[in-house]
Structure formats: structure tokens, C-alpha cells
Design goal:
Layout lengths: L1 E7 L5 E9 L3 E11 L3 E11 L4 E9 L4 E8 L5 E3 L2 E2 L21 H5 L3 H20 L1
Antiparallel strand pairs: 1-2, 2-3, 3-4, 4-5, 5-6, 6-7, 7-8
Length: about 140
């Protein structure tokens, strides 16, 4: 199965197109988002989940005329994460991602309820810190 979805944000000017698909090993969402928040930017991301809807990887790229920054997160499903190929022990135990500029990763309530809020915050905080530091460079 594959499907196209699209929506516009209510809180800031943006438009997102997401292509979702499933296969024998799980599910994938590929997205392009044009965002006008603190300037214009394009946010591209791919979220991959296993057959039980556990996130296995996230690649996110933010591009503007000032810079292009990419972050890659991955896990082998054993609760240990890697950020840009390096171990990220602060993310151990996380099973979901939260990309604040899209409703796609903010509406899977069943996912969110299965793990402690502090682990969600750690993953969200890690993404925010990484993207903020890359925007500043």
C-alpha cells in the first residue's frame, strides 16, 4: 500500500506532502515541507518503522539559502540509538520521534503512551539541540 497525504499548518505558513508506504518489513513516510518560520526553509524527512510501528530510523534535512543541515538517527531495535553514526546513549529506550513542525509525528497517540514522557523529551530535546547547533554554524 502507498498513499499521498498533504496538509497546511494552522500556526505558521507551511505546506507538507507526505508519501506513506508499507512493505514486508514495516512502514515508511517520506515528506517534503515548505515552512515560513524564522525565514523560509524546506524540511525533508524519512521516518521508517518496523512491522510493529516502532521507529527504526529518521533522516531529517533542513535547507535554506543560508545552510543545509542533516541529522540521521537509527536503532537496531535493541533500544540503543545512533546519531549521525555515533552512539547516542541519552536516547536509549526511545521508540518514537517528534518533529515539531509536522502533525505526522505528533498524532500517533498509541505510540506516545507506550513510553515514558521523559524519554520522548530526551529525543525531542536532542533533535532540537542538534538542529539548533547546525543552524548556528
Amino acid at each position: 500500500m502507498s498513499a499521498d497525504m498533504a496538509w497546511a499548518a494552522l500556526e505558521w505558513p507551511s505546506l507538507e506532502h507526505v508519501m506513506v508506504s508499507d512493505g514486508q518489513t514495516g512502514f515508511r513516510a517520506d515528506s517534503q515541507l515548505v515552512l515560513a518560520l524564522d525565514g523560509l526553509a524546506t524540511v525533508s524527512y524519512r521516518v521508517e518503522c518496523d512491522a510493529r510501528w516502532r521507529v527504526t530510523s529518521l533522516t531529517i534535512k533542513i535547507a535554506s539559502s543560508a545552510s543545509v543541515k542533516t541529522v540521521e538517527l537509527a536503532t537496531a531495535g535493541n533500544g540503543h540509538w545512533f546519531a549521525d553514526g555515533q552512539p547516542a546513549p541519552e536516547l536509549d529506550g526511545c521508540i518514537d520521534v517528534d518533529i515539531s513542525c509536522t502533525p505526522l509525528t505528533n498524532t500517533r497517540v498509541g505510540f506516545v503512551q507506550r513510553r515514558p514522557a521523559r524519554r520522548r523529551r530526551r529525543l525531542r530535546d536532542r533533535l532540537s539541540r542538534t538542529l539548533a547547533s547546525r543552524r548556528a554554524s
